[in-house]
Design a protein that fits this description.
By secondary structure, the chain is mainly beta. The protein has a single domain (7-717), classed as TonB-dependent receptor, beta-barrel domain (Maltoporin, Chain A, Beta Barrel). Helix content is 7%, strand content 56%. The protein contains six helices and 42 strands. The chain has a 22-stranded antiparallel beta barrel. Strand 10 and strand 11 form a beta hairpin. It starts with 6 loop residues before the first helix and ends with a strand.
């Protein structure tokens, strides 16, 4: 396995660069903290992902908020086209869209057959979509909140590394609507419409519908097709808001997402031209429903939400990435998941008259969640000697119960102490058609303590938090073991049938300032991970691969995040973000597959996968005339390892995006381009043998990100 011979030199260089950058950022912070004479024009942004709705400038944590304006500036159709705008947020593909998100180096990178509990929470209009991908288009989305670091008090296990909350627009008090039409290269088209307004004096509603289709950017030379990696995505959302009384409001939300995309992303030549004879697919059909009630009593506010979600997920690919005449073999796999979940969250929060000792605010809540996931999997392998099908089915159910609370103590007019805690218990049940069963359960707790100090327009904060993630099951790894060919596999994997819960302790300090035309934030964090869950692979000769999750000790994630927004003049606005990250593996040993038999390799000192050392984002928006504006965005990312099991890395890259916009009264016309200079960049990589033409030797294979895409989008508001 390739190893760097100058690791220590590189480490010293990094520390030197990090020290210089730290001094630079602190200098910027001091400069920006000086008083300015600008008028106060900063738009107030309210973050809703905390237990209390809080203004962004008052939050003691690292948060990025992307507004509807940010989405339209990029003309982004999907979540993964925005994630590089946030410091220390990465994503991996493994599907037609970026499906898995990593925040500060924490998060899953793939899912094969075994149940998955996400480290990063995803909540869409109050419905938990964690672990099943980034569902739905960004059409009519009001705000995206990305909270970095453990969010255990409010969201528990599914937010150990962070949380992404997506809120669509609410029903309006007056009649309004809009229509969107767009077209771009690769035979891309989109259309959407919104209608919103009052239905009765007390009831208002909103309905949004959207479709996006594209041939995609992969060509299949064997099938002579340019649409084997296509997109066909439909979104339907509806909202009702009923003011049931002076103190009671009821919100109802329902959604339908239907994605039927192709998946043909890998080639033996590492290009965007494939030779698959059985192109894969990436499908998701999700229905969701939630009802939220808010009642304001004399001394407290009662908030309750019931949510349901049902999803059919289908995924398949041609695992030899080729065709029979070329390889002599053919094979593919398909899996289908049916996921059904239901949950409720009830909380009571104090009003001013119910504060403890007239000073201390409080929140208490109760959470219940149930989920069932059924997997139906089949694959086949065919050569000149015959056809070899196989199948695997499993059922996994989980029940979660949590109680939580938070107290806010104003110690002075400028200093506030916040303490929150959450206790959560889970009870899982797993069984499959191979007779493997498991019933892991555990009691977990998390929370945070933070101090906030306000000095004029400058806020300083320090936060100590504890996050957790439930344990899980390596059921398929045990069930699929070939006991006759490799009897030793049974004992090895049975010891790893269940893996333990992971916990982490996070230390974070930061500054945030908003004054006049300038707002900025700086945060430093260090996280210590205990029983870190890490994906590993094992090869049992001659060629039996098994993936599993294991617990390792002493993992750590630390870094810096900096962002600012500055209105330099009436015409020019500047935005920027920077993330520095050093994420180290714990005591992990993997197999060197370049040796036979495979020999162990210690990865303990290596960087975690999908954790680039730095990321940056710079944007400039210039108002050319009252009607014309130009937006230029540049984003960049350092190289990173694709897996903890091998040393294949991506290349560092930077991408440039541009939007020229014409806006007059209710009309909006945008000419846009993403990846303007058509840079090639890698979003996923493997290292193994898959090519008979090179003698079946191990070599790297890559999936590439979006090439240059451009188009024209028109909006009409009424």
């Amino acid at each position: 396995m390739p190893r760097s011979s100058d690791h220590h030199v590189q480490h010293r260089v990094f520390l030197f660069r990090e020290e210089r950058l730290m001094k630079f950022l602190l200098a910027l912070a001091l400069i920006f903290s000086a008083q300015t004479s600008f008028a106060d024009t900063i738009e107030e942004i309210i973050v809703t992902a905390t237990l209390r709705d809080t203004e962004l400038t008052e939050l003691p944590m690292s948060v990025t908020v992307l507004t509807e304006k940010d989405i339209q500036t990029r003309e982004a159709q999907h979540f993964d086209q925005l994630l590089n705008m946030t410091p220390n947020v990465n994503f991996s593909a493994g599907a037609s869209r970026g499906r898995f998100v990593q925040i500060r180096g924490i998060g899953e990178r793939s899912q094969f057959k075994d149940p998955l509990d996400s480290s990063i929470g995803l909540v869409i209009d109050g419905v938990d979509f964690s672990g099943i991908g980034l569902a739905g288009a960004l059409f009519d989305v009001r705000q995206i909140e990305i909270l970095r670091g453990p969010q255990g008090t409010a969201f528990g296990s599914n937010a150990m590394g962070g949380l992404m909350l997506l809120e669509t627009n609410n029903p309006s008090d007056v009649f309004e609507g809009n229509v969107l039409l767009g077209a771009g290269n690769y035979s891309s088209y989109e259309g959407g419409a919104v209608i919103s307004g009052p239905i009765t004096d007390a009831l208002s509603g909103r309905l949004a519908i959207h479709q996006f289709v594209s041939n995609g950017f992969i060509e299949n030379s064997f099938l002579d097709r340019d649409d084997t990696n296509d997109f066909d995505e439909h979104t339907l959302r509806g909202k009702l808001r009923w003011q049931a009384g002076a103190a009671t409001r009821i919100d109802v939300f329902a959604s339908y997402y239907d994605t039927n995309n192709g998946y043909d992303a890998f080639s033996l030549e590492n290009s965007r031209r494939t030779r698959s004879d059985e192109p894969g697919h990436d499908r998701q059909q999700s229905n969701s429903f939630s009802i939220a009630v808010s009642h304001e009593a004399d001394f407290f506010v009662l908030d309750g939400r019931l949510f349901l979600e049902s999803s059919d997920l289908g995924y398949g690919f041609d695992w030899d990435w080729s065709n029979v005449p070329r390889s002599g073999i053919r094979g593919g796999e398909n899996n289908k998941r049916q996921r059904d979940s239901i949950g409720f969250d009830i909380r009571i929060s104090s009003k001013d008259d119910a504060r403890i000792a007239d000073r201390t605010g409080w929140i208490v809540g109760l959470y219940r969640y149930e989920r069932d996931v059924e997997l139906f999997y089949d694959d086949h392998w065919e050569d000149s000697w015959g056809f070899y099908p196989s199948s695997f089915n499993s059922d996994f159910s989980t029940q979660r119960l949590a109680a939580y609370g938070q107290f806010d103590w104003p110690l002075s007019e400028q200093l506030q102490l916040t303490m929150g805690a959450r206790w959560e218990t889970y009870d899982d049940a797993y069984h499959d058609n191979a007779g493997v069963t498991a019933n892991p359960e555990d009691d977990l707790w998390g929370g945070r303590i933070s101090l906030e100090y306000l000095l004029n327009d400058l806020m300083l904060y320090g936060t100590l938090s504890r996050g957790y993630k439930t344990g899980g099951i390596n059921g398929q790894a045990v069930a699929g073991a070939d006991t006759e060919a490799n009897p030793e596999i049974v004992g090895f994997l049975e010891q790893r049938l269940s893996f333990r819960s992971e916990t982490l302790i996070s230390y974070e300090a930061g500054l945030r300032r908003s004054h006049g035309e300038l707002t900025w934030s700086l945060s430093l964090f260090h996280m210590k991970r205990d029983d870190m869950q890490a994906k590993a692979w094992i090869l049992f000769p001659p060629a039996e691969w098994k993936s599993y999750l294991d617990n390792v000790e002493n993992g750590s994630n630390q870094g810096i995040e900096f962002s600012f927004s500055f209105r330099a003049s009436d015409r020019l606005t500047l935005d920027a973000g920077l993330g520095l990250l050093k994420a180290k593996l714990g005591d992990l040993t993997v197999q060197d597959i370049d040796s036979f038999p495979p020999t162990p390799v210690d990865q303990s000192s290596r960087d975690q996968a999908h954790a680039p050392d730095h990321q940056f984002f710079i944007a400039a928006n210039y108002l050319i005339t009252p009607s014309f504006s130009l937006n230029i965005q540049v984003e960049g990312k350092d190289s990173f390892f694709f897996s903890n099991g091998h040393d294949i890395k991506s290349d560092s890259f930077s991408l440039t995006h541009a939007t020229l916009r014409y806006q007059f009264e209710q009309y909006n016309l945008a000419l846009w381009a993403r990846n303007l200079f058509n840079e090639d960049y890698k979003v996923r990589g493997f290292y193994f043998a898959n090519n008979p033409l090179n003698g079946w030797i191990n070599e790297p294979y890559f999936q590439f990100g979006e090439p240059r895409t451009f188009g024209l989008t028109a909006r009409v508001n009424f």
